């Protein structure tokens, strides 16, 4: 008996075979996607960003304090007119520049970048100044640095109020 | 052989293992070598020039030997080493000062790895100088460059595992370079839109903001599983192509 039905695009067997392969392929794509997503965690256990450094009179005028370098990777500088905080992360490839009081500069041990006391780069491969961190006084008159607020000189951030804490204040001892 | 065993059992066991009739004829001797799993990659005939050390420098074979040394000693080290910030450095010191033969294993692993990086470069240099990358061996040159890259990545990932200051800062520098890579690094040129320090190649390698426990674990898995597997598969392809492309190349006009 002759088959009067119009020819189909795919036979039943082709439909089933291709569905099976498509399902397998989709599962592999989904599994790969899930694995890639797994490598980017949703929650990062970063330490708190607000760091209490102590009272302003604990630091002498002209002091470059590396007291918080190991724990928070920041350096506190006191000048005649006030405080600023530098991130002790070299802007070249991320090592820790160390303050040399003899040479009056920050020197990075990895590739020899040098920075002035204010954080501006002047030698070696570092392409831009050290970053500063937002500094303020809290209600108990302690110095507080927020390591989440990064201030870059080349973007003009250093002229923002949180880049420098004037001390002593007007009309105060 | 005990009297209870059925006759021919030993013969059957031997035959099932060797797959060749255990009759000592010249043909069976050749087959026994040609059909052995360890030697099936080895050509049945080696041309005279291919064993001339001054032509090959033996660099490819030495590279593979060094890979095997790092493989065996590396597995031994895995029985002692725990890839966590609390244990890694201590386990490395335990290997050096406490575990019997620990220092021998660790130093064999370390020196074989250093030598492998050097010898793989020497192998590439020799293949370049003798023009062995030319047709029909172009594809195998490309495979070889891939193997070189894997060798370097193995060297880089292994560098972090001792978890000392040198490791920390070397990998800090290395991953910051990944963060400055074109397209896939958030600080690099042509950085893909939407890329931040939390989702670029550097973040993928580190699994966190800095080199920490997550980075150690990721480098450990890359070093001990992913990269050796890729290198092993690449070696199979590389050696197979050497035979398919007509064996080790020789000087023009034969040796």
Radius of gyration of chain B: 24 Å
Biggest β-sheet description of chain B? none
Question: Strand pairing plus helix content of chain B: what structural class?
Answer: mainly alpha
First-last Cα distance of chain A: 111 Å
What's the CATH superfamily of the largest domain in chain B, by name?
A: Cytochrome Bc1 Complex, Chain C
Low-confidence parts of chain A: none
State the major sheet of chain A.
7 strands, antiparallel
**What is the general shape of chain B?**
globular
The tally of structural domains of chain A comes to: 2
* Topology of chain B as a string of helices (H) and strands (E): HHHHHHHHHH
Can you give a write-up of this model?
The complex is a heterodimer of chains A (173) and B (255). Chain A is 18% helix and 27% strand. Chain A is α+β, with helices and mostly antiparallel strands and 173 residues long. Chain A folds into two domains: 39 residues; 117 residues, 3-layer Sandwich (Rieske Iron-sulfur Protein). In chain A, the strands form two sheets. In chain A, strands 1, 2, 3, 4, 9, 10 and 11 form a seven-stranded antiparallel sheet that branches. A four-stranded antiparallel sheet of chain A has the order 5-6-7-8, with no helix packed on it. The radius of gyration of chain A is 29 Å and the shape is elongated. With 255 residues, chain B is mainly α. In chain B, helix 5 crosses helix 6, helix 6 packs antiparallel against helix 7 and helix 7 crosses helix 8. At the A-B interface, loops of A face helix 8 of B.
Write the layout of secondary structure elements.
The complex is a heterodimer of chains A (173) and B (255).
Chain A: H1 12-38, E1 50-54, E2 64-65, H2 69-72, E3 74-79, E4 82-87, E5 98-100, E6 105-107, E7 114-115, E8 121-123, E9 132-137, E10 143-151, E11 165-166
Antiparallel strand pairs in A: 1-10, 2-3, 3-4, 4-9, 4-11, 5-6, 6-7, 7-8, 9-10
Chain B: H1 9-18, H2 26-34, H3 53-56, H4 59-78, H5 88-97, H6 102-129, H7 138-160, H8 165-179, H9 201-206, H10 213-244
Helix pairs in contact in B: 4-6, 5-6, 6-7, 7-8, 7-10
